[in-house]
Amino acid sequence: MPLLRACGITPLLGDLDVPASLQRMAGLGQRVVHLAPPPGQGWGDPRTLALTRALRRRGKPTVVVYGSTSGVYGDCQGDRVDETRAPGADSPRARRRLDAENALRFLGRSAQLRACILRIPGIYAVDRVDGTPRARLQKGTPVLQAADDVYTNHIQADDLARACLAALWRGKPQRIYNVNDDSCLKMGDYFDLAADLYGLPRPPRVPRSTARDQLPLLLLSFMSESRRMDNTRLKQELHLRLRYPTVNEGLVAFPA
Q: Whole domain around residue 235: which residue ranges?
């Protein structure tokens, strides 16, 4: 808060779980970036619904950018995935995000403003909790053996922030953008790469049949989906030039 005020920004506090607290925001924000996650339970996102209702009350914004998740695609069995692919969300977490996407796109169509959806994969950054693979490598957490492994996608946090800004100014109405770098790695290869960079032992490889007994459910859920995200639209429409086009460059630039 003091840092915002020092930059000449007057913060307005609102609680997405208390819709009445959002009333002061209506009519003030012309460009909105919505990055708040849904609640941790249920099948919908009442927080995003509350925000859309507040934004349409008066003086609606010109553009809203929403940070969603690549998880809405579901398991694509390693296929190359662009934004024209139909969602296949099959977990409560992903379905809540898809509900939020639908609410924002409906706001865009009905209120005649630009609603841009950013589908974001794994974010990495040294100043983010568990934002690099180091802690997991130090614990010796296993990864899947090559025959069972899945493709995973990444974006460095600074590039994600730049994508949000680009969408605010150049995003098309009700448009979806994959926000990922150019890496094409399976999960185990990603952790092997990080281990080599950090000078740590590579993680043990286990078959999927025994992984269920060794890994937490949340981690297993990520290991059940495989896709290779296409970022062509990000580059061509938002004109974003990635500073860290691969995880190798990102991890080297910001060693944990």
A: 10-132+151-184+229-247
Sign of CA dihedral 53, 56, 60, 61: positive
**What backbone phi and psi angles, to 5 degrees, belong to 164?**
-60, -45
* Closest C-alpha to 152, from 185, 127, 130: 185
Q: Hey, which residues does 68 pair with through a beta bridge? A: 119
- At 164, which amino acid appears? C
Q: Does the pLDDT value for residue 3 go beyond 90?
A: no
* Residue 54 tokens, joined: 């507040």
Contact 131, 157 (CB under 8 A): yes
Confidence of residue 196 (pLDDT cuts 50, 70, 90): very high
Structural domain contains residue 255? no
Q: For residues 112 and 108, give the distance between their C-alpha atoms in angstroms, rounded to a whole number.
A: 5
> Is 56 within the bounds of a domain?
yes
Residue with tokens 């609606």: 60
List the CATH number of the domain containing 176: 3.40.50.720
> How do residues 9-21 score in pLDDT, each as one tens digit?
888 889 999 999 9
Number of domains in the chain: 1
Q: For the stretch 42-62, what's the b/e string if a residue is b when 16 or more beta carbons lie within 10 angstroms of its beta carbon?
A: eebbbbbbbbbebbeeeebbe
Is there a domain that residue 90 lies in? Answer: yes
Q: 29 pLDDT exceeds 90?
A: no
| CA distances in angstroms from 188 to 2, 101, 244, listed in the order given | 42, 31, 20
204 in a structural domain: no
d(CA 168, CA 29): 12
Band the pLDDT of 94: cuts 50, 70, 90. very high
Which residues have a Cβ under 8 Å from the Cβ of 33 and sit 6 or more positions away? Answer: 64, 65, 67, 164, 168
pTM equals 0.94
